[in-house]
Amino acid sequence: MKFVDLDAQFNLVEKEIRDAIDRVLAHKQFILGPEVDVFEQELKAYCGVKHVISAASGTDALLMALMAYGVGPGDGIIAPSFTFVATAEVIQLLGATTVFVDVDEATFNMDSARLEQTIQTVKDDRKLNLKGIIAVDLFGLPADHDTLQTIADQHRLFVLSDVAQSFGAEYKNKKAGVFGNIATTSFFPSKPLGCYGDGGAVFTDNQELADIVESIRFHGKGHGSAGQYENVRIGITGRLDTLQAAILSGKLKIFDQELDQRQVIADIYRRELNDVVITPTTPPGYRSSWSVYTIRSAKRDKIRQQLNQNDIPSAVYYPLPLHRQPAFKNALGGGKMLPVTDRLADEVISLPIHPYLQPDDQMKIIDTIKTAIG
Ligand SMILES: *Cc1c(COP(=O)(O)O)cnc(C)c1O
Fold first, then answer.
1. pTM for the full model?
2. What distance in Å separates the CA atoms of residue 68 and residue 137, rounded to the nearest whole number?
3. b or e along 53-64 (b: 16 or more beta carbons within 10 Å of the residue's beta carbon)?
4. Alpha helices in 156-284 (DSSP H)
5. pLDDT beneath 50, residues of the chain
6. How far is Cα 364 from Cα 290, in angstroms, rounded to an integer?
7. Which atom, in ligand 1's list, is nearest to the CA of 136?
8. Which residues line ligand 1 (CB under 6 A)?
9. Atom of ligand 1 nearest to the CA of 188
10. Is residue 1 within 8 Å of residue 312, measured between CB atoms?
């Protein structure tokens, strides 16, 4: 049994992907070849967003989005501590200060009441120029984007929506990618839509931001006739390569089917485990992309041990929240301000939920957890 079974998926799309790779090998436009443009058009249509700029990774996508807003030293950016390190790493990398905010116990996503308090505290403190919020859709479930956006708008803050784990998810009939003023995702192999290497994308309806991100992606190139050798700003090498774009187009064809499969598996977990552990909440109007299935239990370590003994893969996302990591010692809002984050770190465990999980394997996982709980 595998936590993410890329073999089973490959068997389904092998011909499609080998043909796509061969096409790229034939024309050899490895950087910004035609497949990149095709994939970006497909993403636009899929998410219903005006502009898509594909990127070298989810982390580069986040970085470029913050760079487009000119984030730097003296600026404060609010982010959850209960997330993958990349979400807040990019804030620190730009010399800005991360201000952590706690998450909601039921959804694992940013708590809007705590967000308002945190904004007020930072404003009263007057040390930082508060610029924006990074909202994460943890484990595939969208955050409460309308509420977060309303609060952000009131305080003239931008919302960067980190949909690295929720690509394909929906909130009030809108796809992840359209949430926030700008959104970023990752195509890391184990994400809901994964490539065969690193990849990511930036999404926005704002033409000006899109132009800036596109420039940053290519060393800050200009838009004039001097093209790539005119440098109007400092940028990076942030491009998705052509081979990965070709592979992603192939996988996008079966992606909705895979999301349906994940939902079926999630429904079974819920039905079978709801009485023994805390299963994840999906509020009305939300659809998760189920990048992982994360349950909570005070007996987490016992469950983990029992799963290990039965050769069942599991994972703890995230055992050490960012505010307790040495790399974030300069960040604000940590310490005892994040009680839910600290509690979740002790109680969560993520189970396999890839689309090709076999029914008997899922039953084995469920039975093992029931045995562990006793
Ligand atoms: C995976 C992930 C990222 C980073 O994506 P990479 O493609 O690995 O750089 C950012 N944010 C979150 C929430 C993630 O899960």
1. 0.97
2. 21
3. bbbbbbbbbbbb
4. 207-217, 242-252, 255-273
5. none
6. 20
7. 13
8. 57-59, 83-84, 86-87, 136, 162, 164-165, 186, 188, 198, 200
9. 7
10. yes
